[in-house]
Design brief:
It is built from 1 helix and 11 strands. It has 189 residues and is mainly beta. The protein has one domain: Calycin beta-barrel core domain (Lipocalin), CATH 2.40.128. Strands 2-3-4-5-6-7-8-9-10-11 form a 10-stranded antiparallel β-barrel.
Length: 189
């Protein structure tokens, strides 16, 4: 890892915070402070666990602050000898589909996670970046909301041969606290 790059240092710290905090099931996850950032650990095949056909139970926070629950499905393929993973996500009841494209930057040992909504067919910038540490994969991206910076974190955990979980949390205070807003429980078909 390039320890002279402050963005990579911060991202690594956020990855470690999420990886350790993800073991709990609370809605708000506090950030961890004063810990050395872990090295980037991405390698070909990290997403092999996700290849196949899946049913997904979604729980998503709506604009009114209540949790909506709905079903979905996905088909995932490893590509390029494990350096890539393509996911087609479908939510028939909502008339929604999209594609996740994960590509490993082999030199940096970090995965870029891109998203394409089927309605636009356009890659949503920017990708989130991350890797797996101790069996938990953490990806972060930042967006502006007016003058404020919002950090979005996607976490893969609870990975078994038959199931896994992905959830998204949001921080509006620079990573001091996190609020979950989407949870996907994946079960292999």
């Amino acid at each position: 890892m390039n320890t002279s790059n402050p963005d990579l240092q911060r991202r690594s710290m956020l990855q470690l915070s999420a990886g350790l905090a993800a073991a709990g099931s609370g809605i708000v996850l506090p950030a961890l402070a004063a810990m050395a950032p872990p090295p980037a650990t991405g390698k070909p095949g990290d997403f092999d666990f996700l290849s196949g056909e899946w049913t997904i139970k979604h729980r998503q926070l709506n604009k009114q602050g209540a949790w909506d629950q709905f079903d979905g499905e996905a088909t995932v393929h490893a590509i390029l000898g494990g350096v890539g993973s393509v996911e087609e996500l479908r939510i028939p009841a909502r008339g929604f589909s999209g594609m996740g494209l994960r590509l490993l930057d082999v030199e940096r040992r970090l995965w870029a996670d891109h998203w394409v909504n089927a309605k636009s067919g356009v890659l949503t910038p920017p990708p989130s970046w991350g890797s797996f540490v101790a069996g938990v994969g953490t990806w972060d991206s930042e967006e502006k909301d007016g003058e404020a910076t919002v950090i979005y974190r996607g976490v893969w955990d609870q990975i078994t041969p038959r199931s896994c979980r992905w959830y998204q949390a949001v921080s509006r205070d620079g990573g001091k606290s996190w609020a979950e807003n989407w949870v996907m429980l994946w079960t292999r078909r």
